[in-house]
């Protein structure tokens, strides 16, 4: 019998206490090293930008950087190649505030920043920065979210840049008061369900439950599953809620109703009834009003906008069971985003 299995309780507690101290120290060292590395790259980027790449001296700056890269890679390795140095300059140009970088580098590695600085759009870049910190994404998860065009599929992306920046700041400072638009998507990519043709709503629900972990990953990490086909009684009649979740950051119950075809206006009355029941019987004193996601295979955008469902805490979204090629997906989502912003601008103009 091993000695470790025979340790008395005081010795076992002592072992756990010392182990925790060691692990904590290791984690602290890793964080400190990462932060020092990131800030070093930021300072190199600042030096390159202010001393070489200023006043439109791109051609001269490129020649200097190539010579510099040869010397640095010989002494310090491939991380200081020409592409590495230009990456550091880009890092400084998109994140010029040292205090902001110092804060972010406590939770994000250099590899995170390498992915994020590829993004030219400022609101989109800030979205991935804040969500990566807030959700503690690994570099792999960050890449997957970017490849799936998470920003373009999130409801907040349809809003003006000023509102996006305000909501992201709210997420950073008061996450409990964040807007649902930061966490709700359209469309939801459910290609992993592997459903056959002519499936029913029950088949769709069962497929989701069989791969619940991946479904929650697509929903978002703050969704917690609470139940399926929850029976409620209203006026002597039984009703069943398809899927019920709780969102930890929003502090709300989230009802998900599954529909096979296109969205129909009469779905609104049904879901409003469910939300009122949840608010009366399930909502806790410290929670906000429940919200609903109606997942459909299609929708008429004009119908959805005329019904102003967001005001009733109802979000309509499509689910895609088959993904088009990446180029087609990008084009479709970009087009939908531009059209949504144009419609929003027209509505604002008409109301003035």
UniProtKB/TrEMBL annotation:
It comes from Leptonema illini DSM 21528. One of its GO terms (molecular function) is nucleic acid binding. It comes from the Bacteria. Residues 183-333 form the YhcG PDDEXK nuclease domain. PANTHER family: NUCLEASE YHCG-RELATED, UNCHARACTERIZED PROTEIN YHCG-RELATED. This is Cytoplasmic protein. Residues 17-153 form the YhcG N-terminal domain. Coiled coil: none annotated. Gene3D superfamilies: 3.40.1350.10.
């Amino acid at each position: 019998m091993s000695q470790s299995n025979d340790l008395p309780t005081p010795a076992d507690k002592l072992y756990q206490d010392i182990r925790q101290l060691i692990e904590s120290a290791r984690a602290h060292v890793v964080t400190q090293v990462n932060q020092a590395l990131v800030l070093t790259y930021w300072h190199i980027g600042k030096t390159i930008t202010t001393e070489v790449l200023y006043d439109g001296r791109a051609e001269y700056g490129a020649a200097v950087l190539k010579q510099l890269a040869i010397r640095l890679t010989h002494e310090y390795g491939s991380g200081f190649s020409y592409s590495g140095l230009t990456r550091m300059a880009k890092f400084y140009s998109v994140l010029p505030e040292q205090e902001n970088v110092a804060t972010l580098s406590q939770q994000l590695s250099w590899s995170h920043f390498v992915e994020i600085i590829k993004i030219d759009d400022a609101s989109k870049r800030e979205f991935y920065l804040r969500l990566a910190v807030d959700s503690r994404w690994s570099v792999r998860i960050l890449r997957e979210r970017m490849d799936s065009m998470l920003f373009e599929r999130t409801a907040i992306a349809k809003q003006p840049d000023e509102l996006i920046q305000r909501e992201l700041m709210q997420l950073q400072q008061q996450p409990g008061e964040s807007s649902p638009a930061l966490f709700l998507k359209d469309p939801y990519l459910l290609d992993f369900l592997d459903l056959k043709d002519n499936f029913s709503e029950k088949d769709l629900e069962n497929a989701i439950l069989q791969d619940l972990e991946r479904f929650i990953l697509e929903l978002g990490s703050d969704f917690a599953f609470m139940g399926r086909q929850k029976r409620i009684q209203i006026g002597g009649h039984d009703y069943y809620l398809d899927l019920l979740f709780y969102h930890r950051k929003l502090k709300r119950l989230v009802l998900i109703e599954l529909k096979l075809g296109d969205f129909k206006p009469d779905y609104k009355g049904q879901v409003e009834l469910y939300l009122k029941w949840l608010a009366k019987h399930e909502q806790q004193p410290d929670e906000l009003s429940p919200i609903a996601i109606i997942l459909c295979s299609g929708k008429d955008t004009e119908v959805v906008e005329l019904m102003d469902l967001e005001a009733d805490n109802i979000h309509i979204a499509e689910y895609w069971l088959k993904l088009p090629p990446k180029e087609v997906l990008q084009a479709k989502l970009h087009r939908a985003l531009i059209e949504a912003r144009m419609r929003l601008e027209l509505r604002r103009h008409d109301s003035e």
